[in-house]
Design goal:
alpha/beta, Aspartate Aminotransferase, domain 2, Aspartate Aminotransferase, domain 1, 2 domains, 12 strands
């Protein structure tokens, strides 16, 4: 089936229960077992089914199956937020003494998580250039456990050289983890280009209206075999003492998300609520339609900004003048580049004046909303990153980020024109 059909129907059998056309919200913490044997069988994985909503929930199950279908993966797990999705994906691979290779163009929260918070867990990071990956191979050593990058970066809107990153990773047997939040599954499927694990902040375009926090991890087919023969990741093939000696790669189930569920989600507990899952399921039904409109609107706004004398540079890879244009045409559906763009003006004072002068744009640090949003990354989303590192990553004090919504682009352009004056 095509993506739009999968976004509406995948993962849900409407003949189940009362035949509800809307996926039911299973708002419960726990489930009644048929008897003691049924409970024991569920915990030992002899039977599959809901145990406790920190681990499994029927509403989340629909969301996970729908994401598997949209991202063309093997298994998925829904968690509390995009940040927790990244944490679980990396913690599932690495331990104290290991290192992670991190793109030089990332969302600020991802940078602080990997480079600072997880440093206290004994992990170290090395930074590579995601747009050409020229220095990537030289950074890999026997302790490298993951290569983490964004398909479209936030807020630089840089297009990663996915093909080259994947080729180097496969050569050295290292797992690739791609954050596909900005591009979304409607425009790009990293797994079809060889990526191993995909993460999303579902709070963004999946929801589309700024209502629900959530994250998703999706794994590709074949990771059981990959881990079973790879000495970098022996913990997937050795007995898990915390789960009665379970060997994940020996199971007939995809092992990456299963280990997150049975070990990390079990112990850390950053789970998604059933109500949020229901909101995100409904958001997915219109994702491809919205992302197409976001992208078309953003291109019109980007063209205006490119022609504006106040603007020093526009970061939007659907512009023919952008250095990422060829890669955007190569990777993303119809060359669309989502609704996120950024641009530079002359100074921080000028950027602040523009942000304070707009009327239609709301000063908000979310993205992917139906309403257009504006923010100043250097003083908000990326304010914890040292100034010299910000400049290296393509963000300066005069950078403004826009999340273009579903309004008429003529009105958005008029709002910006007035703000520039």
């Amino acid at each position: 089936m095509e993506q739009q059909t999968l976004a509406i129907h995948a993962g849900y059998d409407k003949t189940f229960g009362y035949g509800s056309m809307s996926v039911p919200i299973e708002q419960t913490t726990a489930y009644a077992f048929r008897d003691a044997d049924h409970a024991a069988n569920l915990f030992s994985l002899k039977e599959l089914g809901p145990i406790y909503s920190r681990l499994t929930n029927p509403t989340l199950d629909v969301l996970e199956k729908r994401y598997v279908a949209l991202e063309k993966g093997a298994s998925a797990i829904a968690v509390a937020s995009g940040q927790s999705a990244i944490f679980y994906a990396i913690a599932n691979l690495a331990e104290a003494g290991d290192n992670v290779l991190m793109s030089n163009k990332l969302y600020g929260g991802s940078v602080t998580l990997l480079a600072h918070t997880m440093k206290r867990f004994g992990l170290s990071v090395k930074v590579f250039d995601c747009e050409n990956a020229d220095n990537l191979e030289t950074l890999i050593d026997d302790k490298t456990k993951a290569i983490f990058f964004e398909s479209l970066s936030n807020p630089q809107i840089a297009v990663s050289d996915v093909e080259k990153i994947v080729a180097i990773a496969k050569k050295h047997g290292v797992i690739t983890v791609c954050d596909n939040t900005v591009a979304t599954a409607a425009l790009f499927n990293p797994i079809t280009w060889g990526v191993d694990v995909v993460v999303h902040s579902a709070s963004k375009y999946t929801d589309g209206q700024g209502r629900a926090i959530g994250g998703i991890v999706v794994e590709r087919e074949g990771l059981n075999e990959f881990f079973a023969s790879n000495p970098r990741y022996t913990h997937f093939s050795l007995p898990d003492e915390s789960y009665h000696g379970l060997v994940y790669t020996s199971l007939p189930l995809p092992c990456f998300c299963l280990r997150i569920r049975l070990a990390l989600l079990r112990d850390i507990g950053a789970c998604m609520s059933p109500f949020n899952a229901w909101l995100l399921i409904n958001g997915l039904e219109t994702l491809s339609l919205r992302v197409e409109r976001h992208s078309k609107n953003a291109l019109e706004v980007a063209k205006f900004l490119e022609s504006c004398p106040n603007v020093k540079g526009v970061n939007y890879p659907a512009l023919e003048s952008h250095k990422g244009y060829a890669k955007a045409k190569k990777y993303f559906k119809d060359g669309y580049a989502s609704g996120l763009l950024s641009f530079d003006v002359g100074s921080f004072e000028e950027a602040k004046s523009i942000i304070n002068s707009v009327k239609l744009f709301s000063v908000v640090v979310n993205i992917g909303d139906s309403k257009s949003l504006i923010t100043h990354p250097a003083s908000t989303t990326h304010s914890q990153i040292p100034a010299d590192e910000l400049i290296k990553s393509g963000i300066n004090p005069a950078t403004i980020r826009l999340s273009i919504g579903l309004e008429d682009p003529k009105d958005l352009i008029e709002d910006l024109k007035k703000a520039f004056n």
